[in-house]
Amino acid sequence: MRAEIITIGDELLIGQVINTNASYIGKKLSEIGISVARIVSVGDVEKEIIDELKYALDNFEVIILTGGLGPTHDDVTKNAICKLFNTRLVFNESVFNQVKEFLAKRGINQINEANKSQAFVPEKAKIINNYWGTAPGFLFEEGGKIVIVMPGVPKEMMGMMENFVINYLAPKSGENVIKQRVLKTAGIAESHLYEKLKDTVAEIEKFCKVAFLPSALGVKIRITVKAKNSSEAEKIINEAEEKIKTKIGKYIYGVDDEELEEVVGKLLAQKGLKLAVAESCTGGLIADRITNIPGSSRYFERGIVAYSNEAKIQILGVPEELIKIYGAVSREVAEAMAEGVRKISGADIGISTTGIAGPTGATPTKPVGLVWIGYSDKNETFAKEFRFGDNRLENKQRASQMALEILRRKLLGIEI
Amino acid sequence: MRAEIITIGDELLIGQVINTNASYIGKKLSEIGISVARIVSVGDVEKEIIDELKYALDNFEVIILTGGLGPTHDDVTKNAICKLFNTRLVFNESVFNQVKEFLAKRGINQINEANKSQAFVPEKAKIINNYWGTAPGFLFEEGGKIVIVMPGVPKEMMGMMENFVINYLAPKSGENVIKQRVLKTAGIAESHLYEKLKDTVAEIEKFCKVAFLPSALGVKIRITVKAKNSSEAEKIINEAEEKIKTKIGKYIYGVDDEELEEVVGKLLAQKGLKLAVAESCTGGLIADRITNIPGSSRYFERGIVAYSNEAKIQILGVPEELIKIYGAVSREVAEAMAEGVRKISGADIGISTTGIAGPTGATPTKPVGLVWIGYSDKNETFAKEFRFGDNRLENKQRASQMALEILRRKLLGIEI
Fold this sequence. Notes:
Chains A, B: It comes from Kryptobacter tengchongensis. Two copies of one chain form a homodimer. By secondary structure, the first copy, chain A, is of the alpha/beta class.
């Protein structure tokens, strides 16, 4: 079963509102095995709505349409639908009672014309109740095609989807379910990842789909499977994951919504280790990410944002000569920062960053994007050099991610 | 001039990625008077891309297409474009040099096949340089139609839009323009803001549109104007802004994309003052935000994330008895933290946060969401109590925003 989603509203076209409705509906339909082939947004223009609906009816089995059902003058969806299905708007007593009841609950007892107009619905349609607002949804089913029309207010649309639409469509879909899994990697470029996985991908693409999605926090590998039922989909996806892990397992830090700070936090808590962080170019971002995780006070001792050289010397114990000789952005200072914050705080592990986030601060030998990341525990202290890009915020992101990734690998005994 | 936006990628259809690209492009085109009539998302399927492009070419003058240009096997946009425009992919030396240069800056000197494939571009097309990634964009102009193709990575697409596309299209458009301005407030609830502005909004809505958009960082007031040309739109929007400012000016910290950390940073730089921050519940978020601003090293001396009590005592000089008597989350400790970080660092101003971000850590008298924010300069030290919500990340956001807002008001001599 294939579907098209049509979202109506000028606010979508001029970029005033981001189309979260379409992604929500896309996700819900995928989960019950209906594959969304197309998403279209058009304005509140009758002809364009009708044209798009005709195209959708010619090509797909399910059409979900949202928006343009409000009581104001610019909402034209109902008329467009009536023309297309050769029906007319009729007053529906039961919808009218619902509208009155909904408003009464909010202390509104005076019903105006705009409210009343909500009770006019296409004669041929089946009504979908709206318990979250005043505009009813409706449904047409004809010749193997299903058209579902809902308001564009996210809360109302989501209420109808969860309360009615999903339950109505799921048994009709019957065939396939779509499942996805995202494997998140850090510390390897997309092209290198692809090189290492080319053959594996060719092999597993016989029974699923693989996509590479790069970002400042690393490359995500998304596996998509279509199968007869949920357990079969799970089986296929697990096999694909295993095959990928065999090749590049060490780069994968998490699955689906798992964040690196969460993974690292769990490892620290399990091992009963305390962490302290000394940041220069990341400016507090590492501490911020670590403390986003509930319960992080168990393993996070302190963070020092040593932006000035004085702070590096005074609270991290970095020897002044090191800064003089090698500069603040250097292997030596990164190591001294990591070791300093560990020793002074009494934590088990110290990590540090020092670099040139940009856009200013570069020197002939030290370009924007140069970052040293330091690590120190009771057995060893070292620092690694990275060259990121020229975007300040992205450099902070990337440096924070690599610092956490180095920590993850050390905690797991993976080579860096 | 009417436009269609085509966004390509399975991740959009299954709801894994929200289509922010389309709304960004829609907004940018509206601002230069090009009206977006239609937004379509389809998967990485050659035939569907071609069909949609044909429809768009038949109906609109401008077509903007994003996505499916990466170096991996699932990116099919380039082939689709070649078939449609009856051209072929040719190796472009100058693009290849750019790709190599881009990778070299990131320390990657080994060019693989996937990287090299980026340098194959449609023979007939004009190249749009990509300084933010490796996939070039391109442009076809034929028979009064303009087709622009860009990568789907938001940063790359936005770079090309701002660097090239808008400048290229703006002179060709020349019609009605839509302008928006956002006034950003902090430290006042939406309902209170609305009460103060009700009459003003009724008055200015005669010639423009006003919307209130609440978030964890405060309430934004958005003014939208449609006018014949840019200078007329500017005039109307300036008048509306003035009227709003007369009523609630002290709550407005910035306009449009201006962030509070940027506003505060400018004030500190102007006054030649140095800031130090001592954070507990915000966990580094304030330091992170401050150091997001280029040049912040001029006024940001250090940040201390004193998550443990030991850190508060050891590096901020908070007296141990204060924590014992009043608890770490208290007026007394917030004040001692702000004063401590200021004195020890030698900065002019110290700010601090201590609170219960949640979900754990609450006591019968100290609920989740309770936060004390401290401020200290050479003349005074004080702390203010806030009650935020029960969402950890939002509590961090709100506390960081209020700390910066208190700083802003102190720097401007506005009552708190």
